[in-house]
Amino acid sequence: MTKYLRVTSLFVLCAIAAEGALAAITLETTTQSATELFALIFGGAGIFLVGIHFAGDYLQQMTSGTVREIVTRVSQNPVGKFLWGLFLGFFTQSGKATAFILSDFVQAGLLKPRQASSMVYWGNAGSSLIAFVSMLSVKVFALLLLGFTAFGLTFHYPKKMVHGYGAMFGLGMIIFGLYLVKNGAAGFAGMDEVSTLVQFIQGFYFISFVVGLLLTLVVQSNIAIMLISIAMASSGLFGLNEAAMAIFGAQAGTGILTWIFSFHSKGSAREVVITQVAFDVIATSVFVTLFYIEKFLGLPLLLSAAHAISDSIGIQAIFVALAFQFGAATLAVLLRKPVFDFIERKFPPSVTEVLSETKFLHKNASESPETGLLLVEREQSRLLERLPLYIDAIRVDSTNTSESPNDYHNAFTDISQKINSTLSQISRLGLNTSSSDELIRITKMQEQLKRFEEIVFQLSTGMARKDISDKARMLSNVIMESTDFIILTAIDAIQSQEEGEISTLEALTQDKSALMTKMRHNFLKSESALSDADRNFVLDITILFENVIQTLARYGALLKQ
């Protein structure tokens, strides 16, 4: 006979104040076949995973000033971190999902990894609260959330809420997917064969731990296994000891799953995900140790406290689950500094993330037009100073083995977006004539810098090709050194602001189209044995070099103003 899990319970205060206020968790008969139950688990897991990615994609786009301000304020306040973590954990019903969502916040620049770590810990505690509020009908809530946000995504009303609709739609998929997983898993849990297996393992605590771990790997939700374990304990299928070990095993299973999925994240975002793995390790190792100390040494610890709370094994199991999650979260928060120091050593941020850090711009840079424009110009100068490093990274004898032109280019793109955002905010302030003229000049310089960087990036990646002949390589080396010299001259002119340096830059950046055309024709004529690939290569890099000259000429003209 097959059965399914119906979870109904009240809030924490009701559970503590009066046992009768807590609805019983029971296993009841169902007519669903094993195929249907498997489809619920498999399909629910798929919806859950898609929901994580869907929510993450839209959360990365939610970088508006309002969202940034809210998240920034929350991250600076320990109480805010606690409440935000509980909120995410409760509504996703997954510490793992909370970690991935927060990693997306870090990826979007809304949080620092260390700020997110506490929220990850409390997210696990928040997910366990579902044991008390399942009476609110998670299915109905998820379907209403999906329907509401789907209409918002379809009709784009209001437009500024589209990214929010997308994030909430992903959240709805996460919740509904877990609901399907839990219902399918509960149906399997109620089968006679499963009941026989559970009765067999009574007293074998480590087997309960392994079963909880393996089931979590299958259904990908430790909360689902937690609720099933509570239901089994309530129905008398096994005792509190087995339920507790199954819950601990489920947490260990979450750690394994999170570690596997962490390879999809990079840099600081992965540090946040690894924070969840650290939580799982701390929670499982500490509470399993306490369990065996209590069982074999007779010290009154967690299980004794559960027996003191109530005579109902269902309430005892709920108490163990909550004490486990909140106790582990509290311990992890206390240990967060040494834990995260270890994570940073073992999982350092990516090269691009390090290079993407601004030196002069900060969140208050746009409050004063004069100060903001000065800071933007200094950040532009720093980006210009990096351009010779693109070329240095591809030299044969280069000692630069950690950074590549692609790393510098990605970092430039990130910083350029921050500069444009700052300039946009400054333009909304009340500017006088002088500030307006300076804003226009710096905006034009940013446009030229962006174009110049793109050309240098294309030139450096083109010259790094391995499939060209030595003859073509010789020409590319000449162009590479010429480009390097001109960029260094431009940097000197910007830093010194001297008329002589600017005049030198003007002389170097005079129109050389005719000269380059003649040099290109002579080279191709003298090297008639060049392959088509070499000829195309020579054509590409000489045109790019001309673009370098033209762009720096316009940059020098703006500098002379």
Protein architecture, described:
It is a single chain. With 561 residues, this protein is mainly α. It folds into two domains: 3-350, no CATH class; 378-560, Methane Monooxygenase Hydroxylase, Chain G, domain 1, CATH 1.20.58. It is 77% helix and 1% strand. It is built from 25 helices and two strands. It has helices at 12-17, 34-61, 65-75, 78-92, 95-107, 113-128, 130-133, 138-155, 162-189, 192-200, 205-219, 222-234, 240-261, 267-297, 302-309, 313-334, 336-346, 351-355, 369-392, 405-427, 433-463, 470-496, 499-508, 513-526, 532-560; strands at 3-6, 26-29. The protein has a two-stranded antiparallel sheet. Helix 9 (162-189) packs parallel to helix 12 and helix 20 runs antiparallel to helix 21 (433-463). The longest helix has 31 residues, at 267-297. The model is unreliable at 1-29 (pLDDT under 50).
Element string (H = helix, E = strand)? EHEHHHHHHHHHHHHHHHHHHHHHHHH
Cα-to-Cα separation, first versus last residue: 86 Å
The largest β sheet comes out as: 2 strands, antiparallel
Query: DSSP strand (E) fraction?
Result: under 5%
Task: Count the domains.
Answer: 2
Keywords:
single chain; 561 residues; mainly alpha; 2 domains; two-stranded antiparallel sheet; 25 helices; 77% helix
Structure summarized in a few sentences:
The chain has 561 residues and is mostly helical. It has helices at residues 12-17, 34-61, 65-75, 78-92, 95-107, 113-128, 130-133, 138-155, 162-189, 192-200, 205-219, 222-234, 240-261, 267-297, 302-309, 313-334, 336-346, 351-355, 369-392, 405-427, 433-463, 470-496, 499-508, 513-526, 532-560; strands at residues 3-6, 26-29.
